[in-house]
């Protein structure tokens, strides 16, 4: 959708994004098949079906936000907001909007994945923490040795993206719980300069970290849903 609005060609899924989308699409087929067989009297599969559909939509929206942030970043040339023309300030504001939307969506999707894993594998994470995150669910796998292989994959993915995800998580927490993340950057910059001119942070680095966040989410989804599909085929049911 955003590519069309920005005059770009529609996206063709490839790489990590395609792998995640394909894994979830295959799971939807399995859920549909199960609902057709036993009519899903308790609506368990229907619920998981809807959740998975939501994850597919959320991943699509995350990728679009990342793309839009990178698109508008290219239009920002000045190194400080004080040096920007009104037009460039508008482009910078659009970049900030989609950048923020992106890093918030990264963790929202991970938490949704955690909810799916907690439900399917009956990890009972709510007994440990009422309002749990993906990372809380990941720790619960220590008590579910039956799915140790999946836990190892997910932990490896988490650890391989530790640095960029830590930065994105800090910005997400700042944005949601304290103050706007870019305001925090501005305050820090004002303390570092006598002129009072706020220098922009490295926007290229921010975009790169965002892309790494998208990759981490994609790999997490691929590992999770590929494992679900594998277990399904092995047991013919969850």
Q: Could you explain how this protein is built, in words?
A:
With 238 residues, this protein is an all-alpha fold. The protein has one domain (2-235). It contains nine helices and no strands. Helix 3 (44-73) runs antiparallel to helix 9 (203-235), helix 6 (148-160) packs antiparallel against helix 9 and helix 7 packs across helix 9. The relative contact order is 0.14.
Q: What topology emerges from the helices and strands here?
A:
Elements (H helix, E strand, L loop, with lengths): L1 H4 L9 H24 L5 H30 L12 H35 L13 H7 L7 H13 L1 H17 L2 H12 L10 H33 L3
Helix pairs in contact: 2-3, 2-9, 3-4, 3-9, 4-5, 4-7, 4-9, 6-9, 7-9
InterPro entries: HEPN_Cthe2314 (IPR041394)
Protein name: Cthe-2314-like HEPN domain-containing protein
Pfam families: HEPN_Cthe2314 (PF18730)
């Amino acid at each position: 959708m955003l590519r069309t609005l920005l005059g770009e060609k529609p996206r063709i899924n490839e790489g990590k994004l395609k792998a995640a989308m394909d894994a979830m699409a295959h799971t939807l087929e399995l859920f549909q098949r199960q609902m057709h067989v036993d009519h899903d009297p308790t609506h368990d599969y229907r619920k998981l079906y809807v959740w998975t559909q939501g994850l597919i939509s959320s991943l699509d929206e995350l990728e679009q936000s990342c793309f839009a942030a990178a698109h508008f970043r290219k239009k920002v040339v000045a190194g400080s907001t004080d040096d920007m023309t009104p037009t460039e300030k508008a482009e910078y504001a659009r970049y900030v909007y989609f950048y923020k939307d992106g890093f918030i969506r990264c963790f929202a999707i991970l938490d949704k994945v955690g909810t799916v894993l907690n439900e399917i594998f009956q990890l009972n994470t709510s007994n440990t923490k009422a309002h749990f995150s993906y990372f809380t669910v990941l720790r619960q796998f220590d008590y579910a040795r039956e799915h140790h292989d999946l836990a190892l994959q997910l932990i490896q993915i988490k650890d391989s993206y530790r640095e960029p995800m830590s930065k994105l998580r800090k910005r997400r927490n700042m944005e949601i719980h304290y103050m706007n993340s870019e305001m925090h950057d501005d305050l820090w910059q004002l303390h570092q300069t006598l002129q009072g001119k706020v220098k922009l942070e490295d926007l290229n680095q921010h975009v790169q970290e965002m892309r790494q966040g998208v990759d981490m989410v994609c790999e997490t989804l691929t590992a999770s849903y590929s494992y679900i599909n594998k277990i399904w085929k092995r047991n013919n049911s969850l």
